[in-house]
Amino acid sequence: MSAREIIIPVFVPHLGCPNDCVFCNQRRISGALEPATAEDVKKAIAEAAALSYIGAKRQLAFYGGSFTAIPQRQMLSLLNAAKEALDAGLIHSVRLSTRPDAIDREILNTLAAHGVETIELGAQSLDDEVLLLSGRGHTAKDVEDASRLIKERGFKLILQMMTGLPGDSDEKSIETVRRIIALRPDGVRIYPTVIVRDTALFDLWQAGEYSPHTVEDAVNVCARLVPMFEKAGIPIIRLGLNPTEELSSGMAAAGAYHPALGELVKSRITLEKAAELLKGAEAQSHVVLGVHPSKVSQMTGQKRCNIEALMSMYALASLKVKPIDCEKDEILIISLEKAEKT
Ligand code: SF4
Protein backbone atom coordinates (compact mmCIF):
# COMPACT_ATOMS: atom_id res chain seq x y z
CA MET A 1 0.00 0.00 0.00
CA SER A 2 1.43 3.38 -0.91
CA ALA A 3 1.26 6.33 1.46
CA ARG A 4 -1.35 8.04 -0.72
CA GLU A 5 -3.62 5.01 -1.00
CA ILE A 6 -7.11 5.34 0.48
CA ILE A 7 -8.61 2.23 2.06
CA ILE A 8 -12.35 1.69 1.65
CA PRO A 9 -13.21 -0.79 4.42
CA VAL A 10 -16.21 -3.08 4.04
CA PHE A 11 -16.82 -5.32 7.04
CA VAL A 12 -18.07 -8.85 6.52
CA PRO A 13 -18.66 -9.80 10.14
CA HIS A 14 -18.83 -13.51 10.85
CA LEU A 15 -20.69 -14.04 7.61
CA GLY A 16 -20.35 -17.67 6.67
CA CYS A 17 -17.61 -18.33 9.17
CA PRO A 18 -17.83 -22.00 10.07
CA ASN A 19 -15.88 -21.43 13.23
CA ASP A 20 -16.01 -20.07 16.71
CA CYS A 21 -12.51 -19.09 17.73
CA VAL A 22 -12.34 -18.57 21.50
CA PHE A 23 -11.24 -14.94 21.23
CA CYS A 24 -13.60 -13.84 18.48
CA ASN A 25 -16.71 -11.80 18.63
CA GLN A 26 -16.35 -10.50 15.11
CA ARG A 27 -19.43 -8.30 15.18
CA ARG A 28 -18.07 -6.42 18.17
CA ILE A 29 -14.55 -6.09 16.84
CA SER A 30 -15.61 -4.77 13.45
CA GLY A 31 -18.26 -2.52 15.01
CA ALA A 32 -20.68 -3.53 12.23
CA LEU A 33 -23.82 -5.52 12.92
CA GLU A 34 -25.09 -6.55 9.50
CA PRO A 35 -23.14 -8.42 6.84
CA ALA A 36 -22.25 -6.22 3.88
CA THR A 37 -24.18 -6.53 0.60
CA ALA A 38 -23.20 -5.62 -2.97
CA GLU A 39 -25.20 -2.39 -2.51
CA ASP A 40 -23.12 -1.50 0.57
CA VAL A 41 -19.95 -2.06 -1.45
CA LYS A 42 -21.15 0.22 -4.25
CA LYS A 43 -22.22 2.89 -1.76
CA ALA A 44 -18.91 2.81 0.12
CA ILE A 45 -16.98 3.10 -3.15
CA ALA A 46 -19.14 5.97 -4.44
CA GLU A 47 -18.71 7.86 -1.14
CA ALA A 48 -14.95 7.39 -1.15
CA ALA A 49 -14.71 8.42 -4.80
CA ALA A 50 -16.70 11.61 -4.11
CA LEU A 51 -14.53 12.57 -1.14
CA SER A 52 -11.03 11.76 -2.36
CA TYR A 53 -8.68 14.06 -4.25
CA ILE A 54 -7.87 13.72 -7.95
CA GLY A 55 -5.35 10.96 -8.61
CA ALA A 56 -5.99 9.19 -5.30
CA LYS A 57 -5.48 5.43 -5.30
CA ARG A 58 -8.39 3.63 -3.68
CA GLN A 59 -8.27 0.11 -2.34
CA LEU A 60 -11.42 -1.79 -1.44
CA ALA A 61 -10.80 -3.97 1.64
CA PHE A 62 -13.15 -6.72 2.76
CA TYR A 63 -12.31 -7.07 6.43
CA GLY A 64 -13.51 -8.90 9.44
CA GLY A 65 -14.74 -12.29 8.35
CA SER A 66 -13.81 -15.38 6.47
CA PHE A 67 -14.46 -13.97 3.06
CA THR A 68 -13.86 -17.12 1.05
CA ALA A 69 -16.04 -19.19 3.42
CA ILE A 70 -19.09 -17.09 2.53
CA PRO A 71 -21.76 -18.99 0.57
CA GLN A 72 -20.63 -18.75 -3.05
CA ARG A 73 -23.58 -16.69 -4.28
CA GLN A 74 -22.96 -13.98 -1.69
CA MET A 75 -19.21 -14.02 -2.25
CA LEU A 76 -19.65 -13.61 -6.01
CA SER A 77 -22.14 -10.80 -5.58
CA LEU A 78 -19.60 -8.86 -3.44
CA LEU A 79 -16.76 -9.69 -5.83
CA ASN A 80 -18.82 -8.64 -8.87
CA ALA A 81 -19.51 -5.26 -7.24
CA ALA A 82 -15.76 -4.90 -6.64
CA LYS A 83 -14.85 -5.93 -10.20
CA GLU A 84 -17.35 -3.45 -11.70
CA ALA A 85 -15.75 -0.66 -9.68
CA LEU A 86 -12.27 -1.81 -10.72
CA ASP A 87 -13.25 -1.83 -14.41
CA ALA A 88 -14.79 1.63 -14.06
CA GLY A 89 -11.57 2.94 -12.48
CA LEU A 90 -13.38 3.85 -9.24
CA ILE A 91 -11.01 1.68 -7.23
CA HIS A 92 -7.50 0.47 -8.01
CA SER A 93 -7.16 -2.72 -6.00
CA VAL A 94 -9.05 -5.17 -3.80
CA ARG A 95 -7.93 -6.97 -0.65
CA LEU A 96 -9.72 -9.41 1.63
CA SER A 97 -9.10 -11.47 4.74
CA THR A 98 -9.94 -15.10 5.27
CA ARG A 99 -9.12 -18.38 6.97
CA PRO A 100 -6.29 -20.67 5.82
CA ASP A 101 -8.62 -23.66 5.36
CA ALA A 102 -10.93 -21.62 3.12
CA ILE A 103 -8.31 -21.37 0.37
CA ASP A 104 -7.84 -23.72 -2.57
CA ARG A 105 -6.84 -23.39 -6.23
CA GLU A 106 -10.41 -22.93 -7.44
CA ILE A 107 -11.14 -20.16 -4.96
CA LEU A 108 -7.89 -18.43 -5.90
CA ASN A 109 -8.89 -18.59 -9.59
CA THR A 110 -12.20 -16.90 -8.74
CA LEU A 111 -10.45 -14.19 -6.72
CA ALA A 112 -7.90 -13.56 -9.48
CA ALA A 113 -10.69 -13.30 -12.09
CA HIS A 114 -12.30 -10.58 -9.96
CA GLY A 115 -9.14 -8.53 -9.62
CA VAL A 116 -8.28 -9.31 -5.99
CA GLU A 117 -4.68 -8.28 -5.34
CA THR A 118 -4.02 -8.99 -1.67
CA ILE A 119 -5.12 -11.85 0.59
CA GLU A 120 -4.78 -11.66 4.36
CA LEU A 121 -4.75 -14.95 6.20
CA GLY A 122 -5.53 -15.30 9.86
CA ALA A 123 -2.70 -17.62 10.86
CA GLN A 124 -2.77 -16.58 14.54
CA SER A 125 -0.19 -19.22 15.54
CA LEU A 126 1.87 -21.92 13.89
CA ASP A 127 1.67 -24.14 16.95
CA ASP A 128 -0.95 -26.87 16.63
CA GLU A 129 -1.68 -27.03 20.34
CA VAL A 130 -2.34 -23.28 20.51
CA LEU A 131 -4.56 -23.51 17.43
CA LEU A 132 -6.50 -26.37 18.98
CA LEU A 133 -6.95 -24.70 22.37
CA SER A 134 -8.03 -21.50 20.61
CA GLY A 135 -10.73 -23.33 18.66
CA ARG A 136 -9.27 -22.26 15.34
CA GLY A 137 -10.34 -25.40 13.53
CA HIS A 138 -7.23 -25.55 11.31
CA THR A 139 -3.63 -26.62 11.66
CA ALA A 140 -0.28 -24.93 11.14
CA LYS A 141 0.10 -26.97 7.95
CA ASP A 142 -3.13 -25.44 6.61
CA VAL A 143 -1.55 -21.99 7.07
CA GLU A 144 1.64 -23.03 5.30
CA ASP A 145 -0.17 -24.75 2.42
CA ALA A 146 -2.56 -21.83 1.87
CA SER A 147 0.29 -19.29 2.07
CA ARG A 148 2.28 -21.15 -0.57
CA LEU A 149 -0.72 -21.42 -2.92
CA ILE A 150 -1.44 -17.68 -2.52
CA LYS A 151 2.17 -16.71 -3.28
CA GLU A 152 2.46 -19.14 -6.21
CA ARG A 153 -0.70 -17.68 -7.77
CA GLY A 154 0.88 -14.22 -7.61
CA PHE A 155 -1.26 -12.56 -4.90
CA LYS A 156 0.24 -10.37 -2.20
CA LEU A 157 0.11 -12.25 1.10
CA ILE A 158 -0.43 -10.69 4.52
CA LEU A 159 -0.31 -12.98 7.56
CA GLN A 160 -1.97 -12.14 10.84
CA MET A 161 -0.62 -13.63 14.07
CA MET A 162 -1.61 -13.36 17.71
CA THR A 163 0.32 -13.61 20.96
CA GLY A 164 -0.92 -14.78 24.33
CA LEU A 165 -3.53 -17.28 23.10
CA PRO A 166 -4.50 -20.26 25.30
CA GLY A 167 -1.52 -22.63 25.55
CA ASP A 168 0.78 -19.98 24.06
CA SER A 169 4.21 -18.89 25.30
CA ASP A 170 6.85 -16.39 24.20
CA GLU A 171 8.92 -19.27 22.78
CA LYS A 172 5.95 -20.49 20.72
CA SER A 173 5.38 -16.96 19.40
CA ILE A 174 9.05 -16.72 18.42
CA GLU A 175 8.82 -20.06 16.60
CA THR A 176 5.64 -18.85 14.87
CA VAL A 177 7.53 -15.78 13.66
CA ARG A 178 10.37 -17.96 12.34
CA ARG A 179 7.90 -20.05 10.35
CA ILE A 180 6.02 -16.98 9.10
CA ILE A 181 9.29 -15.42 7.90
CA ALA A 182 10.02 -18.65 5.98
CA LEU A 183 6.73 -18.14 4.10
CA ARG A 184 7.93 -14.70 2.91
CA PRO A 185 4.68 -12.75 3.34
CA ASP A 186 4.47 -9.19 2.00
CA GLY A 187 3.45 -7.96 5.44
CA VAL A 188 2.19 -9.06 8.84
CA ARG A 189 -0.22 -7.89 11.48
CA ILE A 190 0.38 -8.78 15.12
CA TYR A 191 -2.61 -8.89 17.43
CA PRO A 192 -1.82 -9.61 21.10
CA THR A 193 -4.86 -11.32 22.63
CA VAL A 194 -7.61 -9.14 24.04
CA ILE A 195 -10.42 -10.68 26.11
CA VAL A 196 -13.58 -9.39 24.48
CA ARG A 197 -16.93 -9.80 26.24
CA ASP A 198 -19.35 -12.40 24.87
CA THR A 199 -16.58 -14.74 23.77
CA ALA A 200 -15.55 -18.21 24.91
CA LEU A 201 -12.25 -16.70 26.09
CA PHE A 202 -14.13 -14.35 28.41
CA ASP A 203 -15.87 -17.39 29.94
CA LEU A 204 -12.56 -19.27 30.30
CA TRP A 205 -11.06 -16.25 32.05
CA GLN A 206 -14.04 -15.93 34.38
CA ALA A 207 -13.74 -19.64 35.20
CA GLY A 208 -10.06 -19.13 36.06
CA GLU A 209 -8.94 -21.32 33.16
CA TYR A 210 -7.12 -18.62 31.22
CA SER A 211 -4.78 -15.88 32.51
CA PRO A 212 -4.97 -12.63 30.59
CA HIS A 213 -2.09 -11.67 28.31
CA THR A 214 -1.48 -8.25 29.84
CA VAL A 215 -0.27 -5.14 28.04
CA GLU A 216 3.09 -5.67 29.77
CA ASP A 217 3.23 -9.32 28.57
CA ALA A 218 2.42 -8.19 25.03
CA VAL A 219 5.07 -5.45 25.10
CA ASN A 220 7.67 -7.93 26.39
CA VAL A 221 7.05 -10.55 23.72
CA CYS A 222 6.44 -8.12 20.84
CA ALA A 223 9.73 -6.35 21.64
CA ARG A 224 11.35 -9.70 20.71
CA LEU A 225 9.16 -10.41 17.64
CA VAL A 226 9.26 -7.01 15.94
CA PRO A 227 13.07 -6.97 15.41
CA MET A 228 12.82 -10.47 13.85
CA PHE A 229 10.39 -9.22 11.19
CA GLU A 230 12.40 -6.02 10.70
CA LYS A 231 15.61 -8.00 10.18
CA ALA A 232 13.82 -10.18 7.62
CA GLY A 233 12.56 -7.07 5.78
CA ILE A 234 8.90 -7.95 6.39
CA PRO A 235 6.76 -4.88 7.10
CA ILE A 236 4.53 -4.91 10.19
CA ILE A 237 1.42 -3.14 9.02
CA ARG A 238 -0.40 -3.24 12.35
CA LEU A 239 0.42 -4.08 15.95
CA GLY A 240 -2.55 -4.32 18.32
CA LEU A 241 -6.29 -4.11 17.71
CA ASN A 242 -7.50 -0.86 16.22
CA PRO A 243 -8.98 1.09 19.10
CA THR A 244 -12.75 1.54 18.84
CA GLU A 245 -15.18 3.30 21.13
CA GLU A 246 -16.89 0.02 21.90
CA LEU A 247 -13.69 -1.77 22.90
CA SER A 248 -12.46 1.21 24.92
CA SER A 249 -15.75 1.56 26.77
CA GLY A 250 -15.64 -1.90 28.32
CA MET A 251 -16.07 -4.46 25.55
CA ALA A 252 -12.36 -5.21 25.93
CA ALA A 253 -12.63 -6.73 29.40
CA ALA A 254 -8.95 -7.60 29.92
CA GLY A 255 -5.81 -8.54 28.04
CA ALA A 256 -3.51 -6.59 25.77
CA TYR A 257 -5.80 -3.73 24.78
CA HIS A 258 -4.03 -0.38 24.59
CA PRO A 259 -4.70 2.32 22.00
CA ALA A 260 -0.97 2.87 21.49
CA LEU A 261 0.39 -0.67 21.86
CA GLY A 262 2.66 -0.32 18.82
CA GLU A 263 4.26 2.80 20.33
CA LEU A 264 4.79 1.02 23.66
CA VAL A 265 6.59 -1.81 21.86
CA LYS A 266 8.80 0.59 19.87
CA SER A 267 9.58 2.44 23.07
CA ARG A 268 10.59 -0.84 24.80
CA ILE A 269 12.85 -1.76 21.87
CA THR A 270 14.48 1.68 22.13
CA LEU A 271 14.96 1.18 25.88
CA GLU A 272 16.70 -2.15 25.28
CA LYS A 273 19.03 -0.60 22.69
CA ALA A 274 19.92 2.26 25.04
CA ALA A 275 20.49 -0.17 27.92
CA GLU A 276 22.94 -2.09 25.73
CA LEU A 277 24.71 1.13 24.74
CA LEU A 278 25.10 2.26 28.34
CA LYS A 279 26.51 -1.05 29.56
CA GLY A 280 29.52 -0.29 31.72
CA ALA A 281 28.42 3.27 32.58
CA GLU A 282 29.64 4.15 36.05
CA ALA A 283 27.19 4.85 38.82
CA GLN A 284 26.40 8.55 39.38
CA SER A 285 27.31 9.48 35.78
CA HIS A 286 25.58 12.33 33.94
CA VAL A 287 24.45 11.08 30.53
CA VAL A 288 23.03 12.79 27.45
CA LEU A 289 21.64 10.57 24.69
CA GLY A 290 20.98 11.83 21.17
CA VAL A 291 18.22 10.47 18.94
CA HIS A 292 16.43 11.51 15.76
CA PRO A 293 13.90 14.31 16.53
CA SER A 294 10.98 11.96 15.72
CA LYS A 295 12.22 9.43 18.29
CA VAL A 296 12.57 11.62 21.39
CA SER A 297 9.26 10.50 22.92
CA GLN A 298 9.99 6.85 22.10
CA MET A 299 13.34 7.14 23.88
CA THR A 300 11.84 8.98 26.83
CA GLY A 301 8.94 6.51 27.16
CA GLN A 302 5.44 7.05 28.50
CA LYS A 303 5.59 9.13 31.68
CA ARG A 304 9.42 9.07 31.34
CA CYS A 305 9.45 5.34 32.09
CA ASN A 306 12.53 4.66 29.92
CA ILE A 307 14.52 7.46 31.54
CA GLU A 308 13.64 6.17 34.98
CA ALA A 309 14.41 2.55 34.03
CA LEU A 310 17.86 3.48 32.66
CA MET A 311 18.67 5.72 35.61
CA SER A 312 17.84 2.99 38.06
CA MET A 313 19.54 0.23 35.98
CA TYR A 314 22.88 2.10 36.02
CA ALA A 315 22.34 4.30 39.11
CA LEU A 316 22.87 7.40 36.95
CA ALA A 317 22.92 10.88 38.46
CA SER A 318 21.08 12.32 35.45
CA LEU A 319 19.93 11.32 31.98
CA LYS A 320 18.78 13.67 29.23
CA VAL A 321 17.56 12.96 25.71
CA LYS A 322 18.35 15.44 22.93
CA PRO A 323 17.08 15.57 19.34
CA ILE A 324 20.03 15.41 16.94
CA ASP A 325 20.63 15.03 13.22
CA CYS A 326 21.09 11.25 12.88
CA GLU A 327 19.50 8.12 11.37
CA LYS A 328 16.02 7.28 12.63
CA ASP A 329 17.12 4.09 14.39
CA GLU A 330 20.32 5.53 15.86
CA ILE A 331 20.94 6.26 19.54
CA LEU A 332 24.19 8.05 20.33
CA ILE A 333 25.87 8.93 23.60
CA ILE A 334 26.43 12.69 23.34
CA SER A 335 28.10 12.96 26.70
CA LEU A 336 28.84 10.70 29.61
CA GLU A 337 30.47 12.50 32.51
CA LYS A 338 31.47 10.75 35.61
CA ALA A 339 30.36 12.41 38.80
CA GLU A 340 33.11 14.35 40.48
CA LYS A 341 34.54 12.66 43.52
CA THR A 342 34.23 14.64 46.71
S1 SF4 B 1 -12.22 -17.68 11.78
FE1 SF4 B 1 -12.15 -15.47 11.99
S2 SF4 B 1 -14.28 -14.77 11.88
FE2 SF4 B 1 -14.33 -16.99 12.24
S3 SF4 B 1 -14.53 -17.19 14.46
FE3 SF4 B 1 -12.35 -17.30 13.97
S4 SF4 B 1 -11.55 -15.20 14.13
FE4 SF4 B 1 -13.83 -15.11 14.05
Please give a handful of descriptors for the protein shown:
single chain; 342 residues; alpha/beta; TIM Barrel; 2 domains; seven-stranded parallel sheet; 13 helices; globular; binds iron/sulfur cluster
Task: Give a structural overview.
This protein is of the alpha/beta class. It folds into 2 domains: 5-259, TIM Barrel; 277-337, no CATH class. The chain is built from 13 helices and 12 strands. The strands form 3 sheets. The protein has a 7-stranded parallel sheet with strand order 1-2-3-4-5-6-8, with helices on one face. Strands 11-10-12 form a 3-stranded mixed sheet. The chain starts with a strand and ends in a 5-residue tail after the last strand. 40% of the residues are buried. The mean pLDDT is 92. The protein binds iron/sulfur cluster (SF4). Iron/sulfur cluster (SF4) binds next to loops.
What's the CATH architecture of the largest domain? Alpha-Beta Barrel
Q: Span between N and C termini?
A: 60 Å
Radius of gyration: 23 Å
CATH class of the largest domain: Alpha Beta
Identify the strand order in the major beta sheet. 1-2-3-4-5-6-8
Instruction: Give the uncertain stretches in residue-range form.
Output: none
Oligomer: single chain
- Report the principal-axis shape: globular
The count of strands amounts to: 12
* Category from helices, strands and their pairing: alpha/beta
CATH superfamily of the largest domain: Aldolase class I
Name the average pLDDT. 92
Query: Domains counted in the coordinates: how many?
Result: 2
Order of helices and strands: EHHEHEHEHHEHEEHHEHEHEHHEE
User: Count of helical segments?
Assistant: 13
Bound molecules: iron/sulfur cluster
Strand content: 15-25%
What CATH calls the topology of the largest domain is: TIM Barrel
Major pleated sheet: 7 strands, parallel
Helix content: 40-55%
